[in-house]
Amino acid sequence: MSAKKCSVHASTTADRVAFSDPEVRVEGRSKVSGRTKYAADIVPPDTLWAAFARSPHAHARIIAIDLTAARAVPGVHAVLAADDIGRARFGRQICDWPVLAVDVVRFVGERIVAVAAVTREAAEAAARAVRITYEPLPAVLDTDAAMQGDAPTLHPAWEDYAFPAFEGRARPHRPHPNVQGTFVRAKGATDLEAVFARAPHVFEHHFETPRQHCGYLEPRATVVWIDAAGIVHVHTPNKQPFGLREQLARAAGIPRERIVVECTAIGGDFGGKGLTLDEFPCYYLARATGRPVRAVLAYSDELRDGTIRHQSTVVLKTACAADGTFLAHASTVRFDGGAYAAGKPRPNLIPGFGYGMIAYRVPDVRLEVSTVYTNTLPAAHFRGPAETQTFFAWETHVDMMAAALGIDPLELRRRNVVRDGETMLGGEDVPHAMGEQVLEALERELARSPASGTRGIAFITSHTGGGKTGLKLRLHADGRVEAITGLADQGAGAFTMLQRVIAHALDVAREQVTLRQANTAEALTDPGAGASRVTHIVGRAAEDAVAKLKARLASGERPTSTEPLEVTGEFDSDPPGTAHVADYTFSAYAIDVSVDKETGALTVNDVVLVADVGPILNPLAHRGQIDGAFVIGLGSALREELPIDEDGRVTTPSLGDYKLTTIRDLPPFRTVLLDAAPGDGPYGAKMIGELGNVGVPPALGNAIYNAVGVRLCEFPFTAERIFTALTT
Q: Which residue stretches of the chain have pLDDT < 50?
């Protein structure tokens, strides 16, 4: 990035200084030399290619499937439909997504028939030769239509789907049969309307956000094969291999012990590879043919059925005192979950809690979140899976209130920011709330850096994720230390972080510590990358392993030439019977823009991010996470969108249409990093992965308003959208 960077550190300790030495990525040499194996590089002997016949309809009943011509294509070894595989379904929580469509198709591009052939060309020819007769059904393409009383029920058999979290007990109540999941949280007054009625000022605003693709460089790929002992081997870029093992075991009806998942190198993720699809049909093709089967998707496939960000509708209502103090807040957040809820990792089947106002003190709150079935692309996670939508709405809402009250936007935020010892919406204690310090640092930075255009700001906080994990640590007689983990490094530098933490804790050179990513048969269970939790929980498990190793050495145990000294490190962020203490990280953006009133063209002149980061373990990777998150946020805010037409088809089916941000699009970007309060990670480290992208859309929207006086409550902020607002 051709941007000026600066860092301001509020404090240092001996531990923090120790991590400022140059960073060498554990896997770096292998990647730059081309030796790293991605899933598409795995080709066992006699491997067959997979291809799929897909639905051209958003919603239709399958009347008949004729596989005769497909099976006659030379080189074809298997052609399978739902009746051939037992009508299997999969999902991370609820198993509502059929491996191959069962009776009904629910979105354009849904897989109906799977083919395995000796070449890709033969497989694709056979897929095209499949003949399917449909009865079109009314398509429900948005959440408003889905929630009407006369809307067709898209999943009439919902109660019959496997839903392990609720096995043996009542499932959550759904207010409408097209609701995937709901979440309601409240604090303070039970009669919120009475608070609104007596408040001096009440503001209500409506916001929309689009579907978006994660934009990872490597399209999904997988290889599945079954050995002579009946063990299923899966090579995959799925970043949660133990989760995939559970999902495949449920879908296929086989014990998890008969499945070995090998996580290959991951060519980018950004939230999108917690759910991968190809392993399931490839398993059935491998079972049918007795040969390895590989699927390597094109990017057009990714944009047609890849993991996407939920489109959302957000309605916010806030009561304020005359001085701008927030008195009460109500929000209704509705996410378009698409045709299936299988990609949701939460049992309540929502992408996130929608706490857009969580960085602020609001005594009386009611929050209602729902996810709804529609006949569109199934949605799952994308970096900041619910926060991008809800923080855009809330931080725009704050600026709108500030303008109406005649209060400086930064000052309004400062008056209401949560402080040390106060509690969040869920009752979580915040022992080190750095929000006020972040806002003060932003104000200082803006005072010393005159704007060339007009600025807008946004202020957010993000919670470090938790979980339970373990790893093995082996000390060899020659002094080598080997860490064995089931963690998938999706590109953020997790293996390097582990090496540095272990080496520092043992006071040995980093070169003495090696990392080995083991498969699910050997490694200890790990929840996988996601929720900005890896440094927190895996780093702490590494510290636990080092402590145990030191204890055994202190007791006189030593490794031998044939038997290394092995310990198991474990960490659980929320063990039973303990109170949860939240680790929140705060950040603020100020973005300087110019807008051409004649065309609506937007130029971003300058960006500054102030972030509460804690001690930094991987300096280079840490900067990469901040820079990369900003790029994602900029693309989300300015150009990326997956619109659908009246037939439910995506109208940006290629990267020529779906325009990702590139290096040429980047403005000068500066950071101010505050290191004053420790976090929950090793040596006090805090999360950074989902901190930098979420604040970009609201800061840009606020800057546009300040520049030309038009308020956009929907992004991306294309020139066309800005021009329309200026001229209507």
A: 1-17
Contacts 24+ apart (CB under 8 A), 630-634: 630/669, 630/692, 630/693, 630/696, 631/661, 631/666, 632/215, 632/270, 632/383, 632/661, 632/692, 632/693, 633/388, 633/692, 633/693, 633/694, 633/695, 633/696, 633/697, 634/604, 634/661, 634/665, 634/666, 634/696
Q: What is the pLDDT of residue 493?
A: 92
Contacts 24+ apart (CB under 8 A), 256-260: 258/230, 258/231, 258/232, 259/231, 259/232, 259/234, 259/520, 260/231, 260/232, 260/233, 260/234, 260/519, 260/520, 260/521
C-alpha 637 chain-centroid distance: 17
Tell me which H or E stretch contains 454. Answer: strand 454-463
Q: 588: part of which helix (H) or strand (E)?
A: strand 584-595
Exposed/middle/buried for residue 615 (C-beta within 10 Å: 0-12, 13-18, 19+): buried
3 state DSSP class of 254: coil
Which pLDDT does position 295 carry in this prediction? 97
Digit-coded pLDDT (tens) for 183-205:
999 999 999 999 999 999 999 99
- How far is the C-alpha of 131 from the C-alpha of 113, rounded, in Å? 10
Sketch out the chain's domains with CATH numbers: 1-13+429-463+583-728 (3.30.365.10), 466-572 (3.30.365.10)
Pick from 642, 644, 640: which is nearest to 140 by CA? 644
**Residue 118 near residue 49 (C-beta atoms within 8 A):** yes
Distance CA 134, CA 63 (A): 5
Question: Is residue 586 a contact partner of residue 460, using CB atoms and an 8 Å limit?
Answer: yes
What pTM did the predictor assign?
0.94
Whether cis (ω within 30° of 0) applies to the bond prior to 682 is no
| DSSP string covering 118-169 | SSHHHHHHHHHH-EEEEEE-----SHHHHTSTTSPPS-TTGGGS--GGGTTS
Residue 675 confidence (pLDDT): 85
Residues 81/67, Cβ–Cβ less than 8 Å: yes
Amino acid 327 reads L
Query: Of 658, 637, 688, which is closest to residue 389 (Cα–Cα)?
Result: 637
Distance of CA 709 to the CA centre of its chain: 33
Q: For residue 170, give every residue at least 6 positions away whose Cβ sits within 8 Å of its Cβ, in sequence order, or none.
A: none
CB 412 within 8 A of CB 402: yes
CA separation for the pair 541, 483 (Å, rounded): 11
pLDDT of residue 96: 97
> Residue 5: its pLDDT value, please?
34
Q: Which residues in 74-122 belong to E strands, given as ranges?
A: 76-80, 89-90, 97-98, 104-105, 111-117
**pLDDT tens string 411-454:** 999 999 999 888 777 777 777 889 999 999 999 999 998 889 99
- Distance between CA atoms of 658 and 639, rounded to whole angstroms? 8
Place of tokens 């006699």: 46
